[in-house]
Amino acid sequence: MSLTTHRLAAGYPSRGRVLSEVDVEIRPGHRTALLGANGCGKTTLLACLSGAIVPEHGDVVVDGAALRHNRRGLIDHRRRVQLVLQDPDDQLFSADVSQDVSFGPLNLGLTDDEAQARVAEALELLGVTHLAARATHQLSYGEKKRVAVAGAVAMRPDYLLLDEPTAGLDPDAVEDMLTAITRLEDSGTTVIMATHDVDLALAWATTAIIVTGGRTTQGPVEELLGDDDLVRAAHLRTPWPLDLAKRLGWSARPRGIADVADLLAADASTRAVPE
Predict the structure, then answer these.
(1) Among residues 196, 83, 184, 92, which one has the least CA distance to residue 143?
(2) Across-strand partners of 49?
(3) What is the pLDDT of residues 153-198, one digit of tens each?
(4) CA distance linking residue 221 with residue 223, whole number of Å
(5) CB count, 10 Å around CB of 168?
(6) What residue spans define the domains of the chain?
């Protein structure tokens, strides 16, 4: 089981080709961070994975079944794969939160009672049950972000694609979003997160996909973000724990460094004197 692309190429009439011969694999249960400079094609890749963009050539495949860009194929695909855009105002359009979150389930043909059960479930997972009756225009930016995610979660997707879910949020709102994402993962949803925050990517993800020059490199997050040439080519920076480890002069980069506690533990192990 996986969400994959095979030799995917995509672009726009005004910009030309953005992605070329892209092969990625999103495996269930793995946290995947999608990284790259502005305009590199991260959002384009997410849109292709969700079915929102028809690629020039290549395939998007879910659990062995290729995405078909017709009405039936897209409906089936969006039961499995959902995309949440970076700006929540691009997705929220109903008068209140419950109406907005129920839009997708109702379009699946569910009854009002079934749709409301989905709404209640999604709002609880995102920790925004108290906002159910709130007018969408009265929400804070962080609340809008979580409600937009709830609208996608109400479809009960296997794969949830989040485009910069923490962008523009204050530290408390970032923590709220990450807590909500953990709840989604505990419920069986596999999350793919596009982000510019390399420190967050290192701490959160197990796998990274870095987009540069219209192509992708995929691998363990520590390995890719520890590759100076790749990070430089992608116009990113080395996460501070990995950069600091190098500055400390360690000949080999210790594994599992994502925060201060990991760094101190690794430093202590390098200083230990054998008995």
Answers:
(1) 92
(2) none
(3) 999 999 999 999 999 899 998 999 999 999 999 999 999 999 999 9
(4) 5
(5) 14
(6) 3-90+155-237, 239-275
**Residue 60: exposed, middle, or buried by beta-carbon count in 10 A (0-12, 13-18, 19+)?**
buried
- Pairwise CA distance, residues 195 & 236, whole Å: 11
Listed residue (42, 48, 43, 36) closest to 7, CA to CA: 48
Q: What is the pTM of this model?
A: 0.88
Q: Which residue has the tokens 């949440």?
A: 84
What homologous superfamily does CATH list for 3-90+155-237?
P-loop containing nucleotide triphosphate hydrolases (3.40.50.300)
Is residue 39 left, alpha or beta, with left meaning phi > 0 and alpha meaning psi from -120 to 50? Answer: left
User: Is residue 137 within 8 Å of 97, Cβ to Cβ?
Assistant: no
pLDDT tens per residue, range 224-263: 999 999 999 999 999 988 888 778 776 555 555 556 666 6
What amino acid occupies position 109? Answer: G
Cα distance between residue 158 and residue 148, in whole Å: 17
Q: Note the pLDDT of residue 18.
A: 94
